[in-house]
Write a structure and sequence with these properties.
By secondary structure, the chain is α/β, with parallel strands linked by helices. The protein folds into three domains: 20-207, Rossmann fold, CATH 3.40.50.300; 213-280; 283-362, Orthogonal Bundle (Arc Repressor Mutant, subunit A). It has helices at residues 20-30, 46-54, 72-83, 89-96, 124-138, 155-158, 162-170, 185-193, 213-224, 231-242, 246-262, 269-280, 282-290, 294-305, 313-319, 324-336, 351-362, and strands at residues 36-39, 61-65, 104-107, 114-117, 145-150, 176-182, 204-207, 340-342, 346-348. The strands form three sheets. The protein has a five-stranded parallel sheet with strand order 2-5-6-1-7, sandwiched between helices. The chain has a two-stranded antiparallel ribbon with strand order 3-4. Strand 8 and strand 9 (346-348) form a beta hairpin. It starts with 19 loop residues before the first helix and ends with a helix.
Length: 363
């Protein structure tokens, strides 16, 4: 039997877990003239959600991960490269004649795709403006382009003026639906919700929470039903460990399924899978731990070993963080770097790192 669980990449059916309401909301918005901002911690399934929403729309989709973009000129090249996937080269050739900086085009002999580059040192303002406006010109009312920018908060790291410039160009576009995905909540909300920000109220802000535990239960029970006699108990134990975190639930379920397929009996199989994952990442966790400063170590231990909230007096008495401002700075730093998330409370993102800390502390 094939393992029914998948993690680490964008997932589609049958691995995608029911988010019907969110998909319907995204599809409805993309059918209008508006833009969308999706916020959630890393590995909550933002990219998979958008992928499921757009897969049957029969519209050109241009997706860019800004974490992998090195410069504004590189961003322009990556967008233009994807435009070439949808529109005839001869048609685009006519538009390129009006570009203020002509790109270098080459055919990749392996993939057959067009590679695009601009000369090093190219001033990006006219280049990026020409490429974004090209997308607007080739898009049609019946097949509007959907342009997705993943990890959009990283635009600031590419160039401090990039956000202001992109907003100045995009505000004139009516033939493109822009979708912005962000995992660093404070930064992405600052871009779209602060009045002084160029992108203030540019799109509808949608927060993507954890998957409903009941929906996850149904998905897990179905996956284990052909392999385990007590699929309900296995599913409940997995969710108890991961608290419904989409990525880590899929990862643990995958590991449990692999172990169940190799041995008879289900007793202790979830605990065994958890220990396997902790041991697998032991060196990674130790390397991470050594790079934290003293305050952040206290904060992580406090969150891992107690149910106290980090900005409370009780937490400070227990872990001696110091001033509230110090605790807040630590929390913010750990959230920006993806180690802490906030749902109904502050918690460590990785449940296996939490167990690693507890195990090391007990030893």
């Amino acid at each position: 039997m094939k393992n029914p669980f998948k993690f680490g990449t964008i997932v589609e059916e049958p691995y995608f877990i029911n988010r019907k309401k969110e998909i319907e909301k995204v599809i409805s918005l993309l059918g209008s003239d508006n833009h969308l901002v999706v916020i959630s911690p890393r590995r909550f399934g933002k990219s998979s959600l958008i992928g499921m929403a757009v897969k049957d729309l029969d519209r050109p989709v241009i997706a860019i991960d800004l974490q992998l973009v090195t410069s504004p000129a590189d961003l322009a090249a990556q967008i233009l490269k994807r435009i070439y996937r949808f529109y005839p080269a001869e048609k685009l050739k006519q538009y390129l004649k009006s570009f203020r900086v002509v790109p270098t085009l080459s055919l990749n002999p392996v993939s057959g795709a067009v590679d695009v580059s601009f000369m090093p040192g190219t001033t990006y303002l006219p280049v990026l403006e020409d490429v974004l406006n090209l997308a607007e010109r080739v898009s049609t009312e019946k097949k509007k382009i959907i342009m997705i920018f993943d990890e959009f908060q990283d635009a600031v790291k590419i160039d401090t003026s990039l956000i202001s410039f992109m907003r100045a160009v995009m505000q004139h576009h009516t033939m493109i639906n822009y979708v912005f995905l962000g995992s660093q909540e404070s930064l992405i909300r600052g871009i779209f919700e602060k009045k002084k920000s160029p992108f203030y109220h540019f799109g509808l802000v949608m927060y993507l929470p954890k998957i409903d535990v009941k929906e996850f239960m149904v998905f897990l029970k179905e996956g284990f039903s052909k392999l385990c006699e007590n699929a309900d108990a296995v599913a409940e134990e997995i969710l108890f460990v991961t608290k419904g975190h989409p990525y880590y639930t899929q990862q643990l379920a995958f590991t449990v399924w692999e172990r169940a397929a190799l041995k008879k009996g289900e007793a202790g199989i979830v605990s065994e899978a958890v220990n396997e994952l902790i041991m697998m990442h032991d060196m990674d966790y130790e390397r991470l731990w050594l790079n934290f400063n003293r305050t952040d170590r206290k904060m992580l231990l406090g969150l891992a070993l107690s149910d106290l909230q980090p900005l409370s007096d009780a937490f400070d008495r227990e872990w001696d963080i110091g001033a509230t401002s110090t605790a807040f700075s630590s929390i913010k730093r750990l959230m920006v770097n993806g180690f802490v998330i906030k749902t109904d409370k502050y918690e460590l993102d990785d449940p296996f790192f939490t167990k690693w800390l507890r195990g090391r502390r007990e030893r």
